[in-house]
Amino acid sequence: MSNDAIVQLVAICAGVVGLAAFVSLVTVPVVASYQRLWERFVAGLLSLWVLAALVGVGVLAGGAVIYYWPKLF
Asked: Which UniProt keywords apply (predicted)?
C-alpha cells in the first residue's frame, strides 16, 4: 500500500468510528428520551445540527493547523 492509501484508510476508519460514536452516544439517547413520533423526529434533526457544528469546528481547527504549521515548525 502506498502512503496515500494508508492515509485515506486511516481517515475513513476515523470517520466511521467517530460517526458511530456520535450516533451511539448522542443520537440514540436523545431520540429515546421522547415518546411522540414528531418529538423524536425533531430531536434527531437537532442532533444532526449538533453534528454539523462539531464537523465545522473540526474543519476550522484542521485548517488552522494546516495554516500555522509552517510558522510554528
From this structure: Membrane, Transmembrane, Transmembrane helix
Q: Provide the 3-class DSSP secondary structure of residue 33.
A: coil
- Domain spans, the chain: 3-72
pLDDT mean values, one per 10 residues, the chain (73 residues): 94 97 95 95 95 97 96 89
Contact between 26 and 48 under an 8 Å Cβ cutoff? The reply is no
**For residue 39, what is its C-alpha cell?**
418529538
Which amino acid would we find at residue 63?
A: G
SS3 assignment for the chain: CCHHHHHHHHHHHHHHHHHHHHHHHHHHHHHHCCCCHHHHHHHHHHHHHHHHHHHHHHHHHHHHHHHHHHHHC
